[in-house]
Amino acid sequence: MVPLGYRYGDEGAHARDAARLTCLPPASDPAHARLLATPEQVRELSDWGPAGADELAAVHTARARLGLPAPARTPLTELPEEGVRW
C-alpha cells in the first residue's frame, strides 16, 4: 500500500492510500453502487475541488511507484456481486 496523503472535510481528515486490489469486502450500504472506473473518471464524476486534483496527482505518483500501467478508459460499469473476489 502506498500512502497518498489526506483529504480534509467537515468530518476531519480522510486518509488516502493506493494498492493493488485482490478482493473487496461486502458492501456496507446497499444504497451505494460500486463502479469500475479509472481514477481519472472518478475525478470527473466527483466534486472534490482542488483536493481532487492533488489526489489524482498522487494516484499517478503511486501508479509509477507500484509499476502499474494506466488503465484503459472504459464505460462505467457497476461491479457485479460475483466480481468482488478474483
Structure characterization notes:
28% of the residues lie in helices and 22% in strands. The chain is globular, with a radius of gyration of 14 Å. The longest helix has 17 residues, at 50-66. It has one domain. The protein is built from 2 helices and 4 strands. The protein has 86 residues and is of the alpha+beta class. The strands form 2 sheets. A two-stranded antiparallel ribbon has the order 1-2. Strands 3-4 form a two-stranded antiparallel ribbon.
List the keywords:
86 residues, alpha+beta, two-stranded antiparallel sheet, 2 helices, 22% strand, globular
Shape: globular
Order of helices and strands: EEEHHE
Which sheet architecture does the biggest sheet show? 2 strands, antiparallel
**Radius of gyration (Å):** 14 Å
Q: How many β strands by DSSP?
A: 4
Q: What's the total helix number?
A: 2
Mean pLDDT: 77
